[in-house]
Amino acid sequence: MHGAGCLLTSPDGVEVDVDFTADGTEIFDLWRLGRYAESLPSPAVPSGDALRSAVGALAGPVLTEVRPGWFAVSPASPDRH
């Protein structure tokens, strides 16, 4: 746990870093998404533009921008657990 968030690291080094809103919703920003991509076993190093484009393509049905630059899985998304 750190500040308002949590960093999880799998045994193979994959990192998932999220912060939490006041109601406990997990949120992330593009920096955290990039860090995740870089930590994969076959690391990806997407550009900031590529990350913005990918997140933009998922906006609405899958992701909700909860505050400028911060995203959460949409409540109605089938990917929501």
Features:
81 residues, alpha+beta, 26% helix, five-stranded antiparallel sheet
Low-confidence stretches: none
Whole-angstrom Rg: 13 Å
Shape field: globular
Q: In sequence order, what are the helices and strands, one letter per element?
A: EEEHHEE
What number of structural domains do the residues give?
1
How many β strands by DSSP? 5
As a percent range, the share of helical residues equals 25-40%
Through-space gap between termini: 21 Å
Give the biggest beta sheet.
Answer: 5 strands, antiparallel
Percentage of β-strand residues: 25-35%
Strand order of the largest sheet: 1-2-3-5-4
Total number of helices: 2
Characterization of this structure:
By secondary structure, the protein is an alpha+beta fold. The chain has one domain (5-73). 26% of the residues lie in helices and 30% in strands. It has 2 helices and 5 strands. The chain has helices at 30-39, 48-58, and strands at 5-9, 15-20, 26-29, 63-67, 70-73. It has a 5-stranded antiparallel beta sheet. Strand 2 (15-20) and strand 3 form a beta hairpin. It is globular. The two termini are 21 Å apart. The mean pLDDT is 88.
Short description:
The chain has 81 residues and is an alpha+beta fold.
Secondary structure blueprint with pairings:
Layout: E1 5-9, E2 15-20, E3 26-29, H1 30-39, H2 48-58, E4 63-67, E5 70-73
Antiparallel strand pairs: 1-2, 2-3, 3-5, 4-5
